[in-house]
Every structure is written in C-alpha cells, then in structure tokens.
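FIELD: query
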Amino acid sequence: MSKKVLSYISGITVLVTIPTFFIWAYFAKDENGKVQLEGNELIAYIFLALSLLAVTTGSIALRATNENSKKVSKSTIISGLAVAVIFVLWRLSLSR
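FIELD: result
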C-alpha cells in the first residue's frame, strides 16, 4: 500500500469518527448529561471499532513518515501495530 493512500484512509477515519462520536453523544445524553449505554450498545461498539481502526491506521501512517520509499513495508506495519497496542493498553490502564 502506498503511503499516500494510507494517510488518506487514516485522515478519513479520524475525521469521521471523532466528530460523529461527539454529535451522537450530544444527542444521546439525558437531562443529567450522562450517556446511557443500555439500548445503545451497538452504536458504542461501532464507535469503539472505528476508534481502534483510527488509532491503528494513524500509528502506521505516523511510523511510515520516517521511511524514504513510497510503499509501506511490513516492518512499518508491525511497528505501527505495536504503537497502537501500547496506546490502547495505556488508555485501558488509566480507566481502572
């Protein structure tokens, strides 16, 4: 895959996921300002999957900026996935 296509995919997933999540959360909140996940599990799982996709493609695209070639190598994909996994594990450790 070329770096240009990967950066487009990464940018689109980030620019679609974040604003749509905040729009959904704004309209799904109750009078106390809390979002109840009961009944909205599917939407929450979709946003979780899109967020993981955005983090993964973003970290791979970030790691690909250091390469001189026009294609993304396997080592870049593996190191980008490692960065994404470390970021997700770090965020999960902060939520407890």
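FIELD: remark
The mean pLDDT is 87.
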